[in-house]
UniProtKB/TrEMBL annotation:
Organism of derivation: Paenibacillus phyllosphaerae
Protein name per UniProt: Uncharacterized protein
Source domain of life: Bacteria
Amino acid sequence: MRRLIKQTFTLTGQRYMFTVDTDGFRLYLNCYHGSSEKNDKPELTKELKEKIYSAIAYSEGSQFASNAVYREEKINDDVRKYYKIPYPDIPEYEEVLNWLTINGSMKFTATDTESLFEYLKHKGINAIMFEYKGDTYIFNANPDKGYLWKFVQQIDKEIAELNELRKKLLWHV
């Protein structure tokens, strides 16, 4: 765990302390009574969250504050870059990265590809993600390899075949 921020503040005469930590995957916001991590954690009420948000926004900026207080389950790309938070190596994602390097593309069905795509970008892979016929594709967009161009040619071929089928069907109308 890496500590990103630790601050104390006062709300309605009561002293609190909060911390924001990360494991590389997400942010962890913790709040304590008093000024020690050994003290009890209060319930994070709306008022308490707003005060923590204001404190973080004042010292670190609103983007980080919003990410830490309201969307801590996923680290924003700009926050990741600013705080130099690397992605931990994820074995499944590393396999996809290797596959893309060798084969150029991968087709996904009903998979959370957003975090995978962000991981690839963070690792420096020039990738393109799009949906086609209900599936999600991620392509290695390295122009030297020509993977994307081959897919475009495949789509052009399908378009030509569909146009031929259309002509045949319209001939019967």
